[in-house]
Design goal:
Layout lengths: L1 H17 L6 H11 L4 H16 L1 H10 L11 H16 L5 H15 L4 H33 L1
Helix pairs in contact: 1-2, 1-3, 1-5, 3-5, 4-5, 5-6, 5-7, 6-7
Amino acid sequence: MRGRRKAREIALQVLYSLNFVSIDVQKALNLFWGNFAAPQAAKEFAATLVQGTWEHREELDKLIAGCSDNWSLKRMSKVDISVLRMAVFEFLYCADIPPKVTLNEAIDLGKTFGSENSGSFINGILDALNLKLSKENETTSLHRTARRAKT
């Protein structure tokens, strides 16, 4: 979906800017829309990504930190951490998006907007985190099934 790719690029730019300025998320989005045009569907998805990612960033940062051996969040580039936060938000809160799609999109964003190593760095962290989340979901599902079987 070309519209979602564009939305992710927009969301990344807004999230990146929020690392440096202390303004409301909606104001940041409005500033962006005041200078750049996008299709309505891209605007809506970008707004969802920006608002959700920024609102849940503490939770997202904890998950990222748990899968980034030898890299504190402070050592990561602002582009990489913005891409990672957005991808983890998609993993957790966008059930309609397959994790592989999120992973591939994040890697591409890292390659386009980050350093020459961003793609592989983002891939490593997100792959580990996706595996961890998948195992947790499997365990939760097994516990639910076992509880239902007892009743």
